[in-house]
Amino acid sequence: xxxxxxxxPGVTAKSAGPxxxxxxxxxxxxxxxxxxxxxxxFIVWLVATGxxxxxxxLPGNPVDVYINKQISEYGMSYDxxxxxxxxxxxxDPKTPLWxxxxxxxxxxxxxxxxxxxxxxxxxxxxxxxxxxPWTLFTVGIALLIAVGVGLVLGMLMAYRRxxxxxxxxxxxxxxxxxxxxxxxxLMIVVFGAVNLGIIDYATIRGNLSPGIHPExxxxxFQDAFYxxxxxxxxxxxxxxxxxxxxxxxxxxxxxxxxxxxxxRARGLSDGRIRTAYVGRNAVLPLVAQIATAAGFVVGGAIFxxxxxxxxxxxxxxxxxxxxxxxxxxxxxxxxxxxTVVAANLISDLVYSVLDPRxxxxxxxx
Length: 365
Fold this sequence. Notes:
One of its GO terms (biological process) is transmembrane transport. This is Peptide ABC transporter permease. The chain is mainly alpha-helical. It has a domain of 222 residues: MetI-like fold (Orthogonal Bundle), CATH 1.10.3720. Helix content is 73%, strand content 0%. Helix 6 packs across helix 10 and helix 7 packs across helix 10. The longest helix is centred in the C-terminal third of the chain and has 39 residues. The two termini are 41 Å apart.
């Protein structure tokens, strides 16, 4: 029978030298933060490339759309409309696609999205900068209200499972969740303005009332909130039910955890258990979903802003698609993508701080 001799003194199981342990590149790749950043950059490039080719699959191009509009609406001849388009637009539809793509990527890396075809002399960056804050204003306020109200309602439903309040809020939340935001906007206009007459649709349309200009004053903010009230109401009604249902499910799961039972056995007050044990852990799974929800709301703004003629990034995208304004379409969708990806990246990092267990790349260090 073979015998195993003990290891000689001074000899270790692991050999010393550069081969021991993981390489520097391996350690960097296993970094949770770096992996998330690299993934975010890849997603932005992938979406930017997809948008570039997809917009060019739309029938017609900016020059053709403009010529057809001049002929159908103003009765111009084709030659006159073509000459006007040539003098007005710098876009050349005959430029090779690969050259357009390389120019697009080169500009994107420098933050230059080009010039608007529909508005000669206006850069895409200026156009986005003048419209995006209005959309972020309505979406941001609506998200804060919807999430706050939804979290409170969800916890109430979880603590009163099977009761009247649970069934009533669950049914209403499911109904509101099933209604698209553009349909909700139309319902608000039809019932609130046409049937009931409680909404003055003629004056509430747009961003600001005539004579009001952006400034740091109570008059400006009051008027801005007045015109943003209907888009905000639309976003809140179509998302608050979703947050309530998600929070109910998360809270119900946390209430069954062992640490909650131990806290009750220790005699801790219900208020402390709800905040320190139940509330904090029930909210954790929702952190990443908030950023995703913000992206969907911004994406849906194109329909809501069209209904209320709210001059945000959504209606800018709508008008640009109709006119085949390629640079503006690409710039708007890229900015929305970067916003959503950045929000998801931040939520991932915040989530990793709140729950260090998910930093799998750092566990073994």
